[in-house]
Amino acid sequence: MSNLLHLTDENFNTEVNSKPAMIVDFWATWCGPCRALAPTIEALADEYAGKVAVGKCDVDQANAAASKWRIQSIPAVIAFRNGVEVGRVVGNYPAKVKELIESLL
After folding, report:
1. Which tens digits make up the pLDDT trace of 68-90?
2. Is 57 tagged catalytic?
3. One of 34, 41, 45, 97 is an active-site residue; which one?
4. Taking Cα atoms as reference points, which of 78, 96, 98, 88 lies closest to residue 22?
């Protein structure tokens, strides 16, 4: 069972603001580096279940959320603490994403 949250424009703010610690992967189906990073994001969702929430937000389906968070390049992974951005990794950098999620513990 996947621990990933699928975020949309409709549920983005509610989910991010309701979690004390969360990372969100902004991605798109046509993005090769996004697809390459996906297994890392899925593994982190399982590894940190109950500690840090992990969500995915398709920028093509959630234009408002992508615009609000100024997503200009994908993949972009943002760390949130109580709904406030506290860090960001842009690009396919699994080790940096792991460091980002560790920073929320």
Report:
1. 999 999 999 999 999 999 999 99
2. no
3. 34
4. 78
